[in-house]
Specification:
This protein is α+β, with helices and mostly antiparallel strands. Helix content is 49%, strand content 19%.
Amino acid sequence: MNSFILNSRKFNSVTLNNEKGYVSKTSSNPDILIDEINWYRSIPESIKKYTPQLLNFSTKKSAPYLNTSYLPFPTLSYYLLNQPEDDLLWERIFSQIENLFNDFARFLGNLSHEDIRRMYITKTETRVELFLDQNHLARKMYSKKFYTLNGKVRKNPFVTFEENKGVIEKIINKAKIRLIHGDLCFSNIFFDIATDQLYIVDPRGDFGKKGIFGDVRYDLAKIRHSLSGYERIINNEFSIQCSEGEINYLLLKEKEERKLQYYWDIFTGNSIAEVKLIEALLYLSMLPLHYEDFSRQMILYALGTELLDNALEMGG
């Protein structure tokens, strides 16, 4: 068998069978993979044009697996890192993303306040605690409440989060429950440049409650976080220096990326302040997932600090 191991999350194993043209996924976290499989199984027929073909699977908790058709196209992460200046290309890409959101919006769901709270507050609290257990420097910085970031004194983002839970509760009340993907970052979106077709992979399948529905602003925030530096960070295009009371970083972000982010904010419309706040929570909650790379954790922490402050200043 001619097969290749593909990049994936730490708890996933993804292999390409080149001869038969399919991708096989297993996971050390069976619940997450089963949620993904059930998302593919549950989406309406009209949405399946955006996904690889579901070929074979098992939801047996002891050994779940998922086989899907191979997508021989670059991801939006590739285009962002290599062709951020191609205005015509990005006009085409954004047009298709807009179509995707419009198609998703046709399917309405219901979630309780507590379901949504689990995603925005409880998950953030749990992940922050895990991060502080992992990262001794961040734990020391948390105890001091303030630190200097690129020459400016900032409040620790976890203190800011704790002090502003009331603001976050308010955005929970404004949730727009629709069909969502749940992890709509650029590395999970493929683009066929010949046909202008988008394909999405690695759906979440759980938004405080298992299923295909969630707050549409979460998907909007996932797109924005890919444009605010996440793709550069996971590709190690940054420099950072850290001490107990200070962080200085440089993110190798193209000016063209800032223009793309500006266009995305226009598309987001009146929800932009709320989307920015959710984006900041994404940065804080992802910190323990990057435990294997201290520098990456710390730049995500720094960027999360800035994003949270900026979102709250906007009145998120």
